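Consider the following input, taken from an annotated entry for DUF3606 domain-containing protein (Ramlibacter pallidus).
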Amino acid sequence: MSEDLNKMGSDQLLIHLEPDWERRNWCNWLGCSEDELEHAVTYVGHDPDNVRRFLRQAR
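Applying the prediction step yields:
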C-alpha cells in the first residue's frame, strides 16, 4: 500500500497535459501559453523544473 502512495505522490509532481484544467493551471503557474507548454513537455519531459528551465531559455 505504501508503494502506491509513493507513486501517487511523485506522479502529482509531474506536468500532465490532460485534463484541460490541469494544462491551464500549469500554463498560469509557469506563465506560458498552452502551445509553449506542450512544446516544452515534448522536448524535456514532464518534470516541472526541466520545463521551467526550458521555457526560461527559450525567451
